[in-house]
Amino acid sequence: MSAKRNLSFAAAVAATFMVGGQAVTAQEAWPSEPIQIVVPWSAGGATDAVMRVLAGEVSDALETPVTVVNQTGARGTVGTNAVITADHDGYTWASGGVQDLGTYEVQGLLETSLDDWHLFLIVRNAPVLSVGVDTDFQTPEDVAAYMNENPGDLTVGTSGIPSTAYSAMQAFQSHVGGDFRAVAYDGDAPTMVALVSGEVQASTQSGPGQAPMIKGERIRPLAVLADVGLEIEGADPIPPITDFYPEFSAPGVTILVGIFLPSDVPDEVVTRLGEVWENEIANSEALQAYAAENGSIFSPIWGAEAMELGKAAVAETAWRMFDDGTTAVSPEELGIPRP
């Protein structure tokens, strides 16, 4: 065999390795196979809906299939843990609210922190205080009065502890006093069914999670738990809670929604996805239309900017939980500074 042929053969060997009897090219460009987005909540909810729009946009940008898989249970930790235990090769993504992801550990539910992830955010969703149409509540003050006169009697549908819907109701209760009784469901869709049927009296799920029932006048929205109102196409504007309680402030309860990749995925995955976020996702007409129709705030960011915003939101949420006695571990022990 000639020297030239020997070099060619050596290069071919170096460029390939065997997996399951098949030769695979080294440094194969990502992505080279389908991608899964794991949604830890039920189909039909706010996270599920926006992820299905995102999946189509990312699929077009990367020219590879992107599918959504719902893995519910244990307050969102089942789906998130499925991504943790999967190969960290960039083909399995977690999704949901940053505040949920960042407070699993203080709740003793799952050992993970924001530092374990790359954050790619899409929209921000503000919680809405809504009540059943058969209740007598017409304003947030009515709800506050009931909570104070009948501590623990008000039933509030949330996605469990430590969901951001629960944190939002905690923030409201901390400001107005009284008490409530949280009832946990696996995501927006079953929570809204419970509110419409009268199984619970109120809910603080996000605007997108409530939008279909608000448009259909199946529930009564009283206020957005933020300092700005909310407009959902096909429904009356919803006033901000500050119209009723000017001193109310809880920016951490506005849900930061996105997809999350383990921090140790290959660098080329993060770089390529960052390019997609800055170009295709930032200019996505489909995602912008989704936000306008569902009352979300379109805000696609990633990298250091997303991490800074996420850590601030998680710190506020974690410490509020701790102060209310609903954490298993002090945020301080986990290196989460008090805001």
What is this structure's SSE topology?
Blueprint: H1 3-15, E1 16-19, E2 22-25, E3 35-39, H2 46-62, E4 66-70, H3 77-85, E5 92-97, H4 98-103, E6 117-125, E7 128-132, H5 140-149, E8 155-158, H6 164-176, E9 181-184, H7 188-197, E10 202-203, H8 207-215, E11 219-224, E12 255-262, H9 267-281, H10 285-294, E13 297-302, H11 303-323
Parallel strand pairs: 3-4, 3-5, 8-9, 8-10
Antiparallel strand pairs: 1-2, 5-12, 6-12, 6-13, 7-10, 7-11
Q: Which characteristics define this entry?
A:
339 residues; alpha/beta; D-Maltodextrin-Binding Protein, domain 2; disordered N terminus
DSSP strand count: 13
Kindly report the average pLDDT value.
Answer: 90
Q: From the 3D coordinates, which CATH architecture of the largest domain would you assign?
A: 3-Layer(aba) Sandwich
Residue share in helices? 25-40%
Residue share in β-strands? 15-25%
Low-confidence stretches: 1-26
Return the domain count. Answer: 2
CATH class division of the largest domain: Alpha Beta
CATH homologous superfamily label of the largest domain: Bordetella uptake gene, domain 1
CATH fold node name of the largest domain: D-Maltodextrin-Binding Protein, domain 2
The chain-level structural class is alpha/beta
Number of distinct helices: 11
The Rg value, from CA coordinates, equals 22 Å
Strand order, biggest sheet? 4-3-5-12-6-13
Shape: globular
Distance between the termini: 70 Å
Profile the largest sheet. Answer: 6 strands, mixed
| Elements, N to C (H/E) | HEEEHEHEHEEHEHEHEHEEHHEH
